[in-house]
Amino acid sequence: MQDHIVVLTGAGMSAESGLSTFRDNGGLWEEHSVYDVATPEAFARNQELVLRFYNDRRRQLASARPNRAHRLLAELEARYRVTVITQNVDDLHERGGSSEVIHLHGELTKARSCRHPELVYDIGYQDIETGQTCERGAQLRPHIVWFGEEVPMLDKAAEVVRTADHLLIVGTSLQVYPAAGLVYEVDPYVPITLVDPGAPASVARARVIRKGAVDGVADWVASLA
Whole-structure pTM over 0.90, yes or no? Predict the structure, then answer.
C-alpha cells in the first residue's frame, strides 16, 4: 500500500505564483480591509463592492500560473497517495496536477446561492454580478468561507490528516483557527515537516525548512528519495 502524504498549504504557497495575501500587507488585501470584503456583514452592507473585489481576484487568478511547488506535489502522485488540504481559494493545485484537493476556505472559481448554500456553480473566471441569481431566485455570492462562517470541510480534512504517513505544511503561519488545529489530528509517530521562510509557529517535533514554498518543497521531495 502506498504511503499517504498529506499536505497542508496556506497563502505562502500561492504567493510564489504572484497572488498577494492580506497578512503580508498590514491587514489589507489589495488595499481593502478584510472586514470590508470578507465577512457576511460586508456583503450585506455593500454587495457591489464585495462582488467587484472577488471579480478582480478571479481575473488575477486567471493570469496566475502554478509554481514549481504545485507541480512537485502533483508529481508525487506517481509514487504516493497525496491529499492536499489548502486554505487557499485559488485553483493552482488543481492546475498544477494534483487530483485530491480539499479547499477549507472555499473556491474562487465557484459561486453559490445566498439562500440555498447547497446550490453551487462552477463559474471559472467569470464575474458574479448584482442581480445574478440561482434557479430559485436568490442572489449568487462567491463560494468562499468568510470570517465568522463555519468551515464545512473541516471534519473531512481532520479525517484525512488522521490517515497521514507524512504531514507536510507549506506556506502557512498556523495562526488561523480552526485550520491550524489540524496539525494536532496527526498520529504522534507521523513525521511533520514545516516549510516556512520566517519564524514559524511552534509545532512540536516538526522538522523546519526555512525556505519559501518552491525551494522548501523541492528540498523535502528530494529527501524522500
Answer: yes
